[in-house]
Amino acid sequence: MKAHMITYGCQMNEYDSHLVQSQLVSFGADLVDSIDEADFVLVNTCAVRGKPVDKVRSLLGQLRKVKSQRPLVVGMMGCLAQLEEGQQMARKFEVDVLLGPGSLLDIGTALESNGRFWGLQFKDELHEHIPPSPQGKLQAHLTIMRGCDHHCTYCIVPTTRGPQVSRSPDDILRELDLQLAAGVQEVTLLGQNVNAYGVDGGARLAGYPSFADLLRMVGRSGVKRIKFTTSHPMNFTEDVAAAMAETPAVCDFVHLPVQSGSSRVLRRMAREYSRETYLGHIAAIKKHLPNVVLATDIIVGFPGETEEDFQETLSLYDEVGYDSAYMFIYSPRPGTPSYKHFEDLPRELKTERLQRLIVKQKEWSKLRNATKVGTVQEVLLRGDAHSEGFLEGHTRGNHPTVVPKAFGAEGAGVYPVLIGHSTPHMLYGQIVDADGQPLPEIPRLEAQAAALISPLQMA
Ligand code: SAH
Ligand code: SF4
Ligand code: F3S
């Protein structure tokens, strides 16, 4: 069987796609790079906003057309598959295999059932399953918990992914060991709300560390860089900032979604914190980590958001001074409380506010990135950039970075980089040696040739 996977959504979905891909390989499938080559196409879906849902709908339409011309098994997995909305779509577009986020390990049964299988249960075995490590990659995701116990009024995730289940520290550390053995240097611990790790359904699990202690444990594994996402401000404790400060491998990077700067809107979102408590967390983080890089998620145009509420979001942005932000227009999701109880604001108003927020974000990103010019940053270079002769990667603070290839550093690796130039979205620099001196750059044409030769040399 030749299988092709298409992934939408967040890092959780990327992790799950990798997990299912490794299952497919273990059942003898070849993974191929395009729909044309495939006899099984599996779409990993996202339902968090209207846009990703629309994308899935049009892709499934396209796949049904292909199916009418030649034999093809179509599968749908992930968050949308768990919802009635997705299941209706699956019927309409003749989807053969449907796997909810808790049933991923049913992929084998699905394949055996001659391409007619729907699995929608949340199965415990998934939490204990340890997927093989990504080969030849410096970066890996590691799921430490699934689901979410919060009930933010706008959010569909608790419905699609079910209640929170933390993975056991043993399983996490075993998976990490495999990743380290495979050469991973940066691990990102994943969960919808990592700060609540070990406290499922409000009860602390016996033998599970707190998230702060989990960071300390992972820090002792020998991995070079640790990141984590996402943190919910409600479950944030100062001990997490303290653990970050005393664990050198943990990057000084915190993604703490605020959603809104207005306590009134936060209440309507049922976020369970106020503007003041959020700013208190930021102050604690900055106290323990003076060089911290801060990122956030913001929803603009939540139902009932007034101009004054929005101004509070803008002023909070200035108070925190984020390095980067994911900004979303509120998207009403059927099945959520805010969809049922609140009226959506006019589209133009939401778009106009988003534009103003983007201006703010660009100003801050420009300012924050400019402070890196002249400093040496540790950059994890993943490999070739779009422009020939360049490598791309990211700093410990997650800033995308581009460098020219240099002698002694033609490919992926973790290198010190002297930053020479910045834009709001990118840092540009040169790889340096232990004394901070730039390594000699490889002239463009030679760099191209090196890119062709190095995979052969490695083999
Ligand atoms: N568990 C994470 C977020 C997961 S969803 C957390 O609580 O931080 C990722 C982001 O999508 C959220 O932070 C939010 O900003 C955005 N989001 C979720 N539902 C949305 C909706 N209905 N409309 C617009 N943005 C939404
Ligand atoms: Fe959604 Fe809130 Fe849970 Fe995040 S914490 S996944 S926004 S319900
Ligand atoms: Fe989307 Fe599910 Fe992630 S809804 S954002 S793929 S948790």
TrEMBL record:
Primary residence: cytoplasm
GO MF term (any one): 4 iron, 4 sulfur cluster binding
Cofactor note: Binds 2 [4Fe-4S] clusters. One cluster is coordinated with 3 cysteines and an exchangeable S-adenosyl-L-methionine.
Record: residues binding [4Fe-4S] cluster 1: C10, C46, C79
Key words of the record: 4Fe-4S, Cytoplasm, Iron, Iron-sulfur, Metal-binding, S-adenosyl-L-methionine, Transferase, tRNA processing
Catalysed reactions listed for this entry: N(6)-dimethylallyladenosine(37) in tRNA + (sulfur carrier)-SH + AH2 + 2 S-adenosyl-L-methionine = 2-methylsulfanyl-N(6)-dimethylallyladenosine(37) in tRNA + (sulfur carrier)-H + 5'-deoxyadenosine + L-methionine + A + S-adenosyl-L-homocysteine + 2 H(+)
Cellular compartment(s): Cytoplasm
InterPro entries membership: Elp3/MiaA/NifB-like_rSAM, Methylthiotransferase, Methylthiotransferase_CS, Methylthiotransferase_N, Methylthiotransferase_N_sf, MiaB_methiolase, rSAM, rSAM_horseshoe
Domain MTTase N-terminal: 1-116
E.C. number(s) listed in UniProt: 2.8.4.3
Chain sites annotated for binding [4Fe-4S] cluster 2: C148, C152, C155
Record-annotated Radical SAM core domain positions: 134-367
SUPFAM superfamilies: Radical SAM enzymes (SSF102114)
One of the record's GO cellular component terms: cytosol
Cofactor (UniProt): [4Fe-4S] cluster
Enzyme class: transferase
Source organism, top-level taxon: Bacteria
Free-text function comment from the UniProt entry: Catalyzes the methylthiolation of N6-(dimethylallyl)adenosine (i(6)A), leading to the formation of 2-methylthio-N6-(dimethylallyl)adenosine (ms(2)i(6)A) at position 37 in tRNAs that read codons beginning with uridine.
Subunit description: Monomer.
HAMAP family listed in its UniProt record: tRNA_metthiotr_MiaB
Family membership: Belongs to the methylthiotransferase family. MiaB subfamily.
Protein name: tRNA-2-methylthio-N(6)-dimethylallyladenosine synthase
Species whose genome carries this gene: Deinococcus marmoris
Gene name for this UniProt entry: miaB
